[in-house]
């Protein structure tokens, strides 16, 4: 889905989408996914004895990077399209959603990694890899819930 400008086509109620492309699903928009990822990162940091204020600031540090990566991939549209696609075989739908979830996990870790190279976490590999793991698992598990939901 390309637009004439370089801006991301945020969905609005009457936005005309190309055939076969579905609008974002409530609970699976970029903003909602990013909020859940950042919340879980913050919880992870607090559980690892990071001051809650620093943990919150650090988790919010990832928002722009996640937004940029997700918009580049049109992730909310991709998720919705995979979930709404008419599959004759429910097992095939489940396999495709699993692949999508893993792909989204990879995109998420790339976005987080692009911001994790600063000095704060370079010395602490457990926190570094823990943050990446939390981010990956959060989006993967969220997308896998679509296997149990009738979307349309």
Question: How would you sum up the major sheet?
Answer: none
Order of helices and strands: HHHHHHH
Total discrete domains: 1
Poorly predicted ranges (pLDDT <50, ≥5 residues)? 1-5
**Strand runs, count:** 0
Strand content: under 5%
Task: Determine the N-to-C terminus distance.
Answer: 21 Å
Structural class: mainly alpha
Whole-angstrom Rg: 17 Å
Q: How many H/I helices?
A: 7
Task: Give structural notes.
- This protein has 152 residues and is mainly alpha-helical.
- It has one domain (30-148).
- It is built from seven helices and no strands.
- The protein has helices at 30-47, 52-60, 63-73, 75-84, 90-116, 119-122, 125-144.
- The longest helix has 27 residues, at 90-116.
- The protein is globular, with a radius of gyration of 17 Å.
- It starts with 29 loop residues before the first helix and ends in an 8-residue tail after the last helix.
List keywords for this structure.
disordered N terminus, globular, mainly alpha, single chain
What does the secondary structure layout of this molecule look like, with pairings?
Blueprint: H1 30-47, H2 52-60, H3 63-73, H4 75-84, H5 90-116, H6 119-122, H7 125-144
């Amino acid at each position: 889905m390309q637009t004439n400008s370089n801006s991301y086509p945020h969905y609005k109620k009457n936005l005309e989408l190309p055939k076969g492309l579905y609008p974002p699903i409530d609970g699976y928009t970029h903003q909602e996914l990013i909020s859940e990822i950042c919340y879980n990162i913050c919880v992870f940091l607090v559980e690892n004895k990071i001051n809650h204020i620093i943990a919150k600031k650090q988790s919010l540090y990832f928002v722009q990077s996640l937004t940029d990566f997700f918009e580049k991939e049109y992730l909310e549209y991709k998720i919705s399209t995979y979930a709404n696609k008419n599959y004759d075989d429910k097992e095939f739908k489940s396999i495709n959603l699993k692949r999508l979830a893993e792909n989204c996990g990879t995109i998420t870790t790339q976005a987080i990694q692009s911001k994790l190279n600063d000095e704060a976490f370079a010395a602490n590999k457990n926190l570094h890899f823990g943050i990446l793991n939390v981010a990956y698992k959060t989006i993967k598990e969220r997308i896998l819930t679509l296997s149990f939901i009738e979307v349309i």
